[in-house]
Amino acid sequence: LAKTTQPISMDSYEGQEVNITCSHNNIATNDYITWYQQFPSQGPRFIIQGYKTKVTNEVASLFIPADRKSSTLSLPRVSLSDTAVYYCLVNRNSGNTPLVFGKGTRLSVIA
Amino acid sequence: GAVVSQHPSWVICKSGTSVKIECRSLDFQATTMFWYRQFPKQSLMLMATSNEGSKATYEQGVEKDKFLINHASLTLSTLTVTSAHPEDSSFYICSARAGAGNTIYFGEGSWLTVV
């Protein structure tokens, strides 16, 4: 699976939009890009998944350029409760292929 | 989204004893489940892939005789830590791939403390 690279940490004030960019240069044709959020002592929570262009749900947006070598998770108007670690992962469309985690991005939202 | 549940949420056991952690897919069938371990301030580390009705596939460096995985049904996988030692104390998390969109969902995690 393609390795992902994302910033180790980010800080933001409440109410701001936060964009976390992830690079996955060696992504394969049948790979999806998936983002998870993890709070301390909890399992990762699925945020959003996409293949190309733009995906939006009630929580976030995911922007994927045409070459799919990177992606950007956009969190609108963050609050203190969005302080967490965010993981960008490549999800191969195959039943037996697990997700392999990188270090993630630790987002700190400040009042 | 799909629900994956783990039990227990936390467990304390004595060194040398064994402890079992259950992972259930509550609203979907999972032929494959994945087990991870996470130490404080670190990322998730894949331990093994659990396949229903067959042997689990372990990652390099994970002792299969120490971390016994059983996937006896389409909704249940269990991880048994045998002869536990304090260094096995960690946060154990399972996940399963749900059908639509092939999304992987995670359980709440289980804290194991070996004293």
Topology:
The complex is a heterodimer of chains A (111) and B (115).
Chain A: E1 9-13, E2 18-23, E3 31-38, E4 45-50, E5 53-56, E6 61-64, E7 70-75, E8 84-92, E9 105-110
Parallel strand pairs in A: 1-9
Antiparallel strand pairs in A: 2-7, 3-4, 3-8, 5-6, 6-7, 8-9
Chain B: E1 4-7, E2 10-13, E3 19-25, E4 32-38, E5 45-51, E6 57-58, E7 67-73, E8 76-81, E9 90-97, E10 104-106, E11 110-114
Parallel strand pairs in B: 2-11
Antiparallel strand pairs in B: 1-3, 3-8, 4-5, 4-9, 5-6, 7-8, 9-10, 9-11
Summarize the structure.
By secondary structure, chain A is mostly beta strands. Chain A is built from no helices and 9 strands.
Q: In words, what does this structure look like?
A:
The complex is a heterodimer of chains A (111) and B (115). Helix content of chain A is 0%, strand content 49%. By secondary structure, chain A is mainly beta. The relative contact order of chain A is 0.34. Chain B is mainly beta and 115 residues long. Chain B contains no helices and eleven strands. The mean pLDDT of chain B is 93.
Can you give keywords for this protein?
heterodimer, A: about 110 residues, mainly beta, 5-stranded mixed beta sheet, about 50% strand, B: about 120 residues, 7-stranded mixed beta sheet, 4-stranded antiparallel beta sheet, globular
The SSE order of chain A reads: EEEEEEEEE
How far do the termini of chain B sit from each other?
A: 36 Å
Largest sheet of chain A: 5 strands, mixed
Largest sheet of chain B: 7 strands, mixed
What gyration radius of chain A follows from the Cα positions, in whole Å?
13 Å
Number of strand elements of chain A? 9
Beta-strand segment tally of chain B = 11
End-to-end CA span of chain A: 38 Å
Average predicted confidence as pLDDT of chain B: 93
Q: What would you call the structural class of chain B?
A: mainly beta
Beta-strand residue percentage of chain A:
over 45%
Number of helices of chain B: 0
What characteristic shape of chain B results from the CA principal axes? Answer: globular
Poorly predicted runs of 5 or more residues of chain A: none
> Quick one: overall form of chain A?
globular
| Count of alpha and pi helical runs of chain A | 0
Radius of gyration of chain B, in Å, reads 13 Å
Strand/helix succession of chain B: EEEEEEEEEEE
% residues in beta strands of chain B: over 45%
Report helical residue fraction of chain B.
under 10%
Walk across the major sheet of chain A and give the strand order.
1-9-8-3-4
